[in-house]
Specification:
single chain, alpha+beta, 4 strands, disordered N terminus
């Protein structure tokens, strides 16, 4: 009798413990669901900022772009400096006779005088013009540097914006798929209450909801990093208002690879800069040839003795700087200039090949990603949802275990996130193609 009573007590205790465990589980599920909804609501707040506004702001305020502009402005001041004659030199002379005293012998000797003179260095004709042209090519390279920096900054901003838009979209995905998870939890709870399910099914459903909360937390971490990067690009204070991205939309690509490559060969700043360097080095070769010719110096002197007794002196002299060390100076200079010209040509070829290869890689990425997105839209996404609904119905009718239902749900969640991640990567590739070609594809 004692054993029977003891067995009933143990059974009642076990049922009580199980009920308390289920009550705690359901309470935690309600709390997690509320936190999940609160996270989603807070993350979707704010008005979307169009990408075009951010691009205009970056072009205006980004310090890297401004630094490149100032470097170009500085380079523009060089051509007139190097193409102008050297400053003339003015001379004041005093020559005394018979004593070191000033003006000694000035009134009684025609050798004592006061003189005023000016001298001017004159490079061989054509040298100054070539130096000015070389400096202009340097300024052109600096101008192309502005375009290169601007495109690089804009591409970084676009990629960060699209990634931010993807993370924002994941919130909507979690919200939608969170509703599916609620159906899973309700089905598991219904089966458990009917005695046909297990507590493990509820625990797995709750674990998955907690994982969704963890994913939201990770999402906020990545969003914070991207917000900081975008504000840095825009030169905004880090404590300024966060940026809400617009909806991700797949941009159609209507150009062929040949058309894109033709645009890049004309408009790519790195290729244009390499061409300017070839022009500069060609002028440098011409200047090296000019250095085989002499430079000149012209001097004119007026000398005045006592005007009551002696006449003034007028002296004109011309000097020539003869390049007699040609084997040690001018010929090595010419060889250096010719080698630099060949190097510039090779760098242009290398730059053209690099641009073509990078453009080809981005073009292939766009084609394959576009095909993958179509497969997602027309196949994987609807099929995964159909599979989930079928698994849910089968589980509710006690014809399938919970693990198959959970796997179907995870497939829906994974494929939804993969789709929008592919859209973000597709748009990032569009941004890089725009950076390479200078085209506006949106």
């Amino acid at each position: 009798m004692f054993l029977i009573t003891q067995g009933k007590s143990v059974a009642r205790l076990s049922c009580a413990v199980r009920r308390r465990s289920m009550s705690a589980l359901l309470l935690f599920a309600a709390f997690a669901g509320a936190a999940f909804s609160q996270e989603l609501a807070s993350s979707h707040a704010g008005v979307a900022t169009p990408l075009s506004e951010l691009l205009a702001e970056a072009e205006k305020n980004n310090p890297q772009i401004e630094a490149a502009r100032q470097a170009w402005q500085a380079a523009r001041q060089v051509p007139t400096q190097v193409s102008t004659l050297p400053d003339p030199q003015f001379t004041l002379q005093h020559f005394s006779v018979g004593s070191p005293r000033p003006f000694a012998g000035y009134t009684n000797s025609e050798f004592a005088y006061i003189g005023l003179g000016v001298s001017q260095d004159i490079p061989y004709p054509g040298k100054l013009r070539l130096q000015g042209e070389i400096a202009k090519r340097e300024a052109d390279v600096s101008q192309q540097r502005i375009e290169f920096v601007c495109r690089t900054v804009i591409a970084e901003l676009k990629v960060a914006y699209f990634q931010l838009a993807y993370l924002s979209k994941t919130l909507t995905i979690l919200e939608q798929d969170g509703e599916l998870l609620k159906q899973v939890q309700q089905a598991a709870d219904a089966r458990y209450r009917s005695g046909m399910g297990t507590q493990q099914d509820l625990l797995q459903a709750q674990l998955q909801q907690t994982k969704l909360l963890r994913e939201i937390a990770m999402h906020h971490l990545e969003v914070g990093k991207l917000e900081a990067k975008i504000k840095q690009i825009l030169n905004r204070p880090q404590d300024s208002q966060d940026i809400e991205p617009a909806e991700l939309i797949e941009t159609p690509l209507g150009q062929t690879y040949a058309e894109l490559l033709a645009a890049a060969e004309v408009q790519n700043p790195e290729i244009a800069s390499a061409k300017k360097m070839i022009e500069k080095q060609s002028l440098q070769v011409d200047l090296a040839h000019k250095d085989f010719y002499p430079d000149f110096n012209v001097q004119y002197m007026w000398q005045r003795t006592d005007p009551t007794q002696f006449r003034a002196y007028y002296m004109l002299s011309v000097g020539v700087r003869v390049p007699i060390y040609r084997g040690r100076k001018q010929r090595p200079e010419l060889a250096q200039a010719e080698a630099e010209k060949l190097r510039a040509g090779s760098e242009l070829q290398a730059q053209s090949q690099q641009v073509a290869a990078e453009l080809r890689a981005q073009y292939v990425l766009l084609q394959q990603t576009s095909a993958l997105l179509k497969i997602h839209r027309e196949g994987l996404s609807p099929q995964s949802r159909s599979e989930f609904q079928a698994a849910l119905a089968t589980y509710q009718s006690n014809k399938q275990d919970f693990q198959a239902l959970l796997t179907a749900f995870l497939d829906v969640l994974r494929l939804d996130e993969e789709y929008w991640q592919n859209v973000a990567e597709y748009e990032a590739a569009i941004a890089r193609v725009e950076q390479i070609t200078g085209l506006s594809l949106r």
